[in-house]
Amino acid sequence: MTISERLTEPALFKTGAYIGGKWTSGDKSFPVYNPANRQTLADVTDVGAEGAKTAIAAASEGLKRWKKTSPFERCRVLLKWYDLIQRYSDDLGTLITAEMGKPLREAKGEVAYGAAFIEWSAQEAARVHGETLPVAAPGARGWTLRQPVGVVSCITPWNFPAAMITRKAAPALAAGCSIVIKPAPETPLTALALAELADRAGFPAGVFNVICGDAQDLGPVMTGSPEVRMIGFTGSTEVGKLLMRQAADGIKRVSLELGGNAPFIVMDDADLDAAAAGVAQAKFRSGGQTCVSPNRIIVQEGVADAFVGRLQAKIASVKAGDGFDSASDIGPLIHDEAVDRVDALVKSAVAGGAKVLTGGQPLADELGGSFYAPTLLDGGSFDLEIARSEIFGPVASVYRASDETQIVQLANDTPYGLAAYLYTRDIGRVHRMTEELDYGMIGVNAPMVGSASTPFGGVKESGIGREGGKWGVEEFTELKYVLLAGVNG
Ligand code: SIN
Fold this sequence. Notes:
Elements lengths: L2 H4 L10 E3 L2 E3 L4 E6 L4 E7 L2 H19 L4 H17 L1 H12 L3 H22 L6 E2 L7 E8 L2 E5 L7 H13 L2 E5 L5 H14 L6 E3 L4 H10 L3 E7 L2 H12 L4 E5 L4 E5 L5 H13 L9 E7 H16 L19 H16 L3 E4 L5 H4 L7 E4 L6 H4 L6 E7 L2 H9 L6 E5 L3 H10 L4 E4 L18 E2 L4 H6 L2 E8 L5
Parallel strand pairs: 7-8, 7-10, 8-9, 10-11, 12-13, 12-17, 13-16, 15-16, 17-18
Antiparallel strand pairs: 1-2, 3-4, 5-6, 6-20, 11-19, 14-15
Succinic acid binds next to loops.
């Protein structure tokens, strides 16, 4: 069965570019694969640098109208987009599973997660406002305006093909910005389906654009064009640094949600069953391919064996398989290079003294796609490469440490600072440790930190800016100050 035959609304299967309110296609294209079986799903238009320039010109035109639209109207169009996404949630989930690999029920969960950012931002549109200020000069008045930043380039990753788009697009559109989205080349089909639904929702021409193609050609245009005033990006720290350098020339605003190396801390007073369930939930989401995935599971020595036993039982029951098979708990990795990378990390950890308790090998031959076995490693040293770099795969690695002070020091010993998790029942520890951990988000006895109403983002090399909640919308606004001189008499 082809991918479009799986959809209840085959018109959501798009392979062109959506620019200035119109679908276009070009001569150059690139293939999109299903990582579960390596079959080609589609050939998608590569717009090249010229297409990116056209999209930015269209967004500049769209901006003129959209920024003057009433926030109530922006709210209505956004809510219409939200409704359509809910209506076609099964189809969007199907596209996500086909091109990214995560199990269908998880893919539909991502659609709901992504749609919530639209609902939240829509309602926030009417709450963007300035303030009246006291000023020193007699009779004078001062006030601020919150205005849209302008044209925004959104560069989005493959691990959440829907939610990382909506988490940028919705607040930008709510604030009155126009956008050009470039999805990852691995997962353009979900982005293009979202564009089709945006078209049906009624965004004026040029406000919402989606282009696909080679980052080498599109990237410099999307960061360098003078009309672009902001770049929103989710992806690796390495690419984030490159984009920041490119944005520096035009002093453009950046919002960067980058890599992580999340510690998952289990203290000796923690509920160990809840902690083991929490690791399994957070670790295997998107097959371990999230930047908030627990990367170092740091357990206080006294409870380490008891905890590892529980975690091993959980991980041994996690089943890898095709995302369209309802028995699968996790899907494939995004491609074979990702499998090779994860496998090399595991092999070097084992060579460095870590023990494989479950998994520890690729499943590509057995399952016929880019699969890696759900894996548990124990007894690693914090100096191993697997502890220092982002695993981005279904591998949980446990480390042992003695006390609060040492655990905080080890947890902070990384250039990253996105998410951390802390399991303890001691409220004193909660306060002390959350204040000391250098992370943008901390889940206390909670394995999932992201939601539409809360700030998502990191410190240190994990990024700049926040997505989600009122902060996510504020990122896309400029603060303007107006002073009106006093009138004599
Ligand atoms: C990410 O991995 O980039 C996002 C994860 C999330 O929103 O929870």
